[in-house]
Write a structure and sequence with these properties.
By secondary structure, the chain is mostly helical. The chain has helices spanning 27-32, 34-42, 53-64, 68-75, 96-102, 105-114, 124-135, 144-151, 172-187. Helix 2 packs antiparallel against helix 3, helix 3 packs antiparallel against helix 4 and helix 6 crosses helix 8 (144-151).
């Protein structure tokens, strides 16, 4: 499936800034999807940063010591807004099928919509994917929800949520400074 790369229009705060799009991962997300949850917070994409930094630590610990990476993610790693890379006002899913393979269809839909892998798993299209994953094995077709997510589900701007509680936002001063720097660089 093609990547969804178009930026979602900014959501403005009352003071003229932009809301962030990086939700601090919940405990279930960190436990069940440790590398992807950490990558989703730091890089804004569940797989782009899953093999670097603290996400790689969680991945290797899970590979070699069963659930040690999940325990590391829940108890040791702490979301720090200064670690956010790229545009903190955006989330992406650059490779939907790989992201589904690493987590699950309902989790990826929830990540796109809510910013967390578990927060919205039983709402809307994520619930459809979850139901298909539950019903699939009964009719000898496992992972129907994952297949639905890879082949049928399309992330849209309308589904993408931000809130003042999310990290990665920009204040009005940061935006003006960035725009001024671009104009100055183009003028020289």
């Amino acid at each position: 499936m093609a990547a969804y790369t178009q930026p979602v229009p900014a959501t403005m705060t009352p003071d003229g800034g932009q809301m962030g799009a990086r939700m601090k991962p919940t405990c279930p997300s960190l436990f069940f999807c440790a590398p992807c949850a950490i990558s989703g917070y730091i890089r804004g994409d569940p797989t782009d940063g899953s093999c670097e930094g603290p996400a790689l630590t969680a991945l290797l610990l899970n590979l070699f010591l069963c659930i040690a990476g999940s325990i590391y993610a829940v108890l040791v790693w702490k979301p720090d807004p200064s670690q956010i890379q790229g545009d903190g006002t955006q989330r992406t899913i650059n490779n939907i099928c790989l992201a589904v393979f690493c987590t699950s269809g309902p989790c990826i839909i929830s990540f796109w919509k809510e910013g967390d892998f578990c927060t919205g798993c039983v709402q809307g299209e994520a619930c459809i994917a979850l139901a298909l994953n539950i019903i699939g094995p009964e009719i000898f077709a496992p992972s129907l929800g994952d297949l639905y997510t890879c082949c049928c589900w399309k992330p849209t701007h309308a589904q993408f949520k931000r809130s003042p509680d999310m990290d990665g936002g920009k204040s009005a001063g940061q935006q003006v400074g960035t725009a001024t720097a671009v104009v100055v660089n183009n003028a020289t």
